Amino acid sequence: MRVDRIAVIGAGTMGRGIAYTAILAGFQVALHDIDSKQLTRATEDMNRLMERRIELQEMTPDDRGAVMARLRTTTDLKVAVGDADVVIEAVLERMEVKVDVFAQLDALCPPHTIFATNTSTMSPTEIGAATTRPRQTIAMHFFNPVHRMKLVEIVRGLDTDDDTFETAKRLATRMGKESVEVNEFPGFVTSRISCLVGNEAMKMLQEGVASAQDIDKAIQLGLNYPMGPLALADLVGLDSRLRNMQYLHQKLGETYRPAPILEKYVKAGRLGRKTGRGFFDYASKS
Fold it and tell me: Domain 3-hydroxyacyl-CoA dehydrogenase NAD binding spans what residues (predicted)?
């Protein structure tokens, strides 16, 4: 199926990153959020990213105008998805929220629309079952920051058909991404590994094995990770990481029980970069 128009549902970090990458790739994009302030912040972030590209002479001001002309933002879900070829959902990582969103999408989207969820852990089968089109439902797991990270995990649900998979794969390629095909299982490939490594780093921190700085430095330099697991958790958001760990613990057992320090930090409101403090202090750095 040919894809020209994409609707992205959720203008948080992941949603705005997906929308930005899609308009750069030439797609017409509708970005939806229930909060108009989120949409304003998303537009400002995209303009800042393109300003940097202009400074690096990777783009001209005219190019920026043409790219931004491919984006429209709206708080009206019907307006966002009424002509969409593909909808990519990037809302809160809670199954009940996602199921509710996709039930609404099912009633509003054209019959040909493919549904993609950007979930990092959850079941596209369960999400698809909330709609009348499970064959057209798939997971496309992008990574943060979307415009830099090269991978998209494409995860088939039980009923996902080949045309939906191939469309998702071509979409990822056009957005400049490499993709891997994953058969559905909780956590897919990357989240199972990333959550496990991050959780072990948190346990080492609470046990006093080393400081947060030295744990991350050891993993970066000793295992050649581009970012330490504690800094990555701060980037993702400790509340989001906790929800992922709780889901994996429920589905996969004790190996994925969240480290107590993670639960403590979330209760304290230390959620990472977005609050200025997590395992590291970002307010003082700024």
Answer: 6-184
Cβ neighbours for 44, distance < 8 A, ≥ 6 positions apart? none
Residues 143-190 pLDDT 10s: 989 999 999 999 999 999 999 999 999 999 999 999 999 999 999 999
Q: Indicate the DSSP class of residue 257.
A: P
Q: How many CB atoms lie within 10 A of CB 61?
A: 10
**What whole-number distance in Å separates Cα of residue 85 and Cα of residue 2?**
8
CA distance 21 to 227: 22
Residue 62 exposed, middle or buried by CB count within 10 Å (0-12, 13-18, 19+): exposed
Which of 55, 120, 126, 125 lies closest to 92 in space, CA to CA? 120
CA 57 to the chain's CA centroid: 28
For the beta carbon of residue 86, count every other beta carbon within 10 angstroms.
27
Radius of gyration of the CA atoms of the chain, in A:
19
Q: Considering the chain, what is the average pLDDT of its residues?
A: 96
